[in-house]
Amino acid sequence: MNCGNALERRCPNCGTQAPPEARFCMNCGNALDATGPPATPAPAAGAPATAAIPPEERRQVTVLFADLSGYTAFAERMDPEAVKSLVDRALLRLGHEVTRYGGTVDKYIGDNVMAIFGAPVAHEDDAERAVRAGLAMQQAIVELDAELALRVGINTGDVLAGSVAEGGYTVIGDTVNVASRLQAAAEIGTVTVGERTMRATGRNRGAV
Questions:
Q1: Statement: 57-201 belongs to CATH 3.30.70.930
Q2: What is the pTM of this model?
Q3: Which of 17-26, 45-54, 165-174 shows the lowest mean pLDDT across its residues?
């Protein structure tokens, strides 16, 4: 209102900067108002946090890793900005499927999404929610009609949940490592789950 300079658009939930075309926050998956005014800027460094991070605790959660693949080939013949726009759009859609099924996007690592079901908010059917989200992710990639493919790995187990160093809320433990390995070993277009996830959802095979 003073100088007329455009303000940064930020997520009202976590304060992460969002591009003008984004419909969902790439950090927390929160829905953004694409037509409304810019969100309130995040608190300055050193300011007290508006939302307290839950205390550190052991929890049983289901961890989901989803990895985009297949864009390397067309990245060689497309403009870098077009490639980034496509990947951003795909990741935002994947994050939306996580939140739609009650999960939390823990982080985006390059072209990889890590999501948690069961922390900080737990449901009785978190394992099933994670599997449904994984299947919805695969369908979402098909609907995007792009030269992209997806591998999804899901694992259920005990973790230590809380703040790591000065970062935000996350989970650590072998359960996370196994989920990542399951994703890496999965066939393109599948959702591969660990034994405990399989038992919790009543499925009798590891890939769906």
A1: no
A2: 0.71
A3: 45-54
